[in-house]
Amino acid sequence: MSTDQILIAGCGDIGGQLGKLLIAQGHQVFGLRRNINQLPSGIQGINADLGQPDTLSALPQQTDTVFYIVAAGGREEQRYRQAYPEGLNNLLTAFKKQNIRPRQLFFISSTAVYNQHNHEWIDENSVTEPDSFAGQITLEAEQVALNSGIPATVVRFSGIYGPGRNMLLNQVMQGKGYPAEPLRYSNRIHRDDCVGVLMHLYQRSKEQPLQPVYLASDSEPVPLHEVADWLAQKLNSHISDRTSRRAIGSKRCNNQQLSDSGYQFIYPGYQQGYPDLIRAFLADID
Fold it and tell me: What is the pTM of this model?
């Protein structure tokens, strides 16, 4: 197997886990972020800020694959703009200036680009007409990637859960759930499957061209109140507050294209993905 130089821009939790797998395969991995002190061992840190073009002057010259896995770091519109279309444009400009020609670009997006809210099934070909600035700006950044001149693939993750992402567990432990009406479907993907999907698509890209967009969500869209009620049972918690709290839309994500590409989910549904998280959560609060 040949050794690739791989750049992970925005190398946080998902990028760090992905980097460790790529290193185990013998690849050279660079993690670009503002603070490189927390990068896993073996990932070569690039201390840079995607919002500051002058910090992007020393990128890996033989970069084969780029994963753009950036978090906005806040809900403000300007943060989204800086993190996504502006940050990606800055990186692409730096590649051109340094005469770096990656073979493949992955832009990590989200299902915020959809606005369906009547329990519709959605896939890669569904209409994207987001009414939130987050969805609109993310969709704009997708186009930056797809029009970059580099073979690019957009991966739209649904709600990510996993180690360290305990918001719903904390909420349920406090007795807060969701009403059965109005019905709200939710879609999720475990952190380990996020990493698995990216690894799968990277390996597949070495063999054949990828689709421009993949929707990455587990195989079990489910009403939000059912998830909370199941977690309450496992946590031995009683839900007393079913106030209709914030939930964005109600759609059901179809992962058929991803499954057809050969990806097998580690956690095809929340009942497979949550038990280890529940055990760790309960151990932490003991």
Answer: 0.96
Closest Cα partner for 163 from 13, 277, 242? 277
Q: Give the pLDDT confidence of 49-83 residue by residue, as tens digits.
A: 999 999 999 999 999 999 999 998 888 999 999 99
Contact between 108 and 54 under an 8 Å Cβ cutoff? The reply is no
Whole-angstrom distance, CA of residue 155 vs CA of residue 14? 13
- Dist. CA 170–CA 252, nearest whole Å: 25
Quick: pLDDT tens for 80-119.
999 999 999 999 999 999 999 999 999 999 999 999 999 9
CA distance 60 to 106: 17
Q: Is 207 helix (H, G, I), strand (E, B) or coil?
A: coil
CA gap 62, 7 in Å, rounded: 10
Per the CB < 8 A criterion, the answer to whether 281 and 169 are in contact is yes
